[in-house]
Amino acid sequence: MIKFRSxxxxxxxxxxxxxxxxxxxxLGQFFKYNFLDTLNDxxxxxxxxxxxxxxxxxxxxxxxxxxxITTRYTKPIKAATEVAIELAxxxxxxxxxxxxxxxxxxxxxxxxxxxxxxxxLTKVREIQQDRLSALIENMGAGLILFDSRGYINLVNKGYAxxxxxxxxxxxxxxYYEVIDYEEIRQLVAEVFRTExxxxxxxxLPLQIERKYFIVYGVPIIGANNVWKGVLLVFHxxxxxxxxxxxxxxxVANVSHELKTPVTSIKGFTETLLDGAMNNKETLQSxxxxxxxxxxxxxxxxxDLLELSKIEQHGFQLNIQLIDLYSVLQDVLxxxxxxxxxxxxxxEFHSKRNKVLLYGDLDRLKQVFINLINNAITYxxxxxxxxxxxxxxxxxxxxxxxxTGVGISRExxxxxxxxxxxxxxxxxxxxxxxxLGLAIVxxxxxxxxxxxxxxxxxxxGSEFIIELxxxxxxxxGDS
Length: 478
Prior knowledge:
- Helix content is 55%, strand content 18%.
- By secondary structure, it is an alpha+beta fold.
- It folds into four domains: 2-121, no CATH class; 140-236, PAS domain (Beta-Lactamase, 2-Layer Sandwich), CATH 3.30.450.20; 241-311, Helix Hairpins, CATH 1.10.287.130; 319-475, Histidine kinase-like ATPase, C-terminal domain (Heat Shock Protein 90, 2-Layer Sandwich), CATH 3.30.565.10.
- Strand 4 (209-221) and strand 5 (227-236) form a beta hairpin.
- Helix 7 runs antiparallel to helix 8, helix 8 packs parallel to helix 12 and helix 10 runs antiparallel to helix 12 (436-446).
């Protein structure tokens, strides 16, 4: 650009100097020899007119050349300069017009090519930045980044959701000023002190619960071993811990439930072998107890196998169009004898005598047999069990309400756990295994339905099931 401007300046200056020198020499010769005094007035006028016209033509030619040079060189250079300034300010969409193939045209083309390359690099950088941001925000773990001085530079959505904080309250603040947990502060300090990776399992209180985390602290070292900061990554393993505890509880409960009938069977059998079998009444009594415990053991094993089958990944329902009204009627007929032995009144209410939905006939019958049988079992004599069927547009609602012993508010959240009993002694005496409601819950959820409980101790219980009428057929899964 400086070269072009210098060339234009030299050409323009040279022309002006040549014209002025020529006119100066001519006028000098005239005045030196008093040449004009020897001429008459008419010739003097003609000479002055000629000089004036010549000077005017010289000026006009100089101006035309100056305009031409300005148009040819200065304007393209100015336009290129303006585009360069826009590029320097970050406007990579700026372009200059290129309608020449000379040096100025090459300059404009080069500026435009530079702008296109910068724009493309910016797009690539923005795409990479968006991908990185999406990855950081949705990585399924909490992440927090500190600089070399301990100031927080980044807090992702996972960390904010875990600890229920606003990221803006953390950014550009020292970690020990805003992080409330001493365990986390100590971990950060340890990484800063040792400059080594640190991994710890933390058990932290969050609102009304405590959660388990695996926390990785990683030092960030740049080129030439320049200390950049620390990165913390939080993995929530609370569900894993919960499942581990459930597994331990399940093994302990199964062992306990199997131990009781096996111990009874073994004890009574040993007693019989020791001579009690010679007493007919004792023999009959002991054999009845052994049969009862054997039945209970068989029921427990069947329920365990059933629950295991339902919880398997490949478990499938046999979906078909069924009449839920008829299903409930069959279940009530099946349990009517048991209800009459306790003088319990079974009531069935439905505005329609046909309620159609898609489901597994045998599995739904299993659900209602379990719930209605429980209602009869835990309702004292002369009580009542009421079943209400409501047919909605998209869902069916079934309510099973009894006048039984009820369930305390503290026990309600746990009644669907395997082997959990509100009253262990009473449940065991009634023949329950503690697995029935767990099976019911799995089967209802396999139908994409829901089950809820309303109960107060001593005032009876109400189990409410809602099932979709169409969704299961379309899904075709469990």
